[in-house]
Every structure is written in C-alpha cells, then in structure tokens.
Amino acid sequence: MSDNTPVTDVAGRYAAALFELADEAGALDAAEGHLGALSAALAESADLRALVSSPIYSREEQGAAMAAVCRAMEISAPTANLIGLMAAKRRLSSLPDVIRAFRALLAKRRGVVPAQVRAAAPLSDAQREELERVLRAAAGADIALDITVDETLIGGLVVKLGSKMIDTSIRSRLTRLQTAMREVGV
Known about the structure:
Belongs to the ATPase delta chain family. By secondary structure, this protein is an alpha+beta fold.
C-alpha cells in the first residue's frame, strides 16, 4: 500500500486497494467516473440499494447481479473486480463508504479539500455553487463536495470541512432548545 493512503476501516482498505490499482494503471479518472456512476445509480434506485444492503440475497446472487450492473454500465475491470470481491466477502453494504473513501484519497492526491454536506433537501445548482464558493473561500483551496440528503435534519445543513463541523440544521437547534429547557426545569 502506498504511503499516501493511511486507512484503517474496511471501506478505506477497499478504496485504497482500488486507488492503488487504478493509479498504477493510470486510470484514476476512469475509476472516479465509474464510481460516480455507481453512486448515482445507488441514489436513484431503491432496488440497487436493497441489493447491496440486504442480507436476504446470497453472495452469489449479489455477485451475479452486480456483475450484470457493471457490464451494463461498462465499468472497467479494476472497479468491477473490486465490486465482485466485495460481493464475495459480503461487504457490498460498504460500497457507498468505499466510494466516499476513494473520492477522499483522490481529493488528497489532487490537493483538494473534501467537504461532506448533509442537507435536509436536495440543493439546487445555484445553492450548490454558492455553497462551494463559500467553502472554497473558507478552506483557501479547491473543494470536493459530497452532498447527501438527510431528511431527519428537518432543515438546514451539516457541513464537515476537513476536521471542522458546522451544524446549522433545525434538528440540532431543536435539540439544543430542548436541552436548555430541561436545564431550567421546563
């Protein structure tokens, strides 16, 4: 494993392995594109999410289904092989985390600061651009946004930029208000 991939969790190890293989083959951009396509497919398809996360499917069923998905999406061999290995090891539920970890490794290589954003609702293109502009100014570097929708936030955003966490969610505000009310005996 290369010295720029200090990873300890399962998803991180898979991401680091794919990163190293793709890097050696000069195919980091291709792997990034394929993982992006898989991420979009997972976001759009409840059936695909169920396939990768549900224990009711056998290793063989998951492997065959994911091999078909990879063929249909024209996913290259290193990425498809990784997904096949994950299916064989019953680790497909970690696929979204592998994608995030791979993106983080790629961002680090490119000198880009990763920003993980949880939003209560999908962001418009204008909101996304403004958020990226503000975060780029705060970080003083290019930003790699990873935006996920978390309806439990009720409203607002939770932003993790490097080691900093900014929570502007309504859920967080309600929790703080509830705690304050308990402290005063209401």
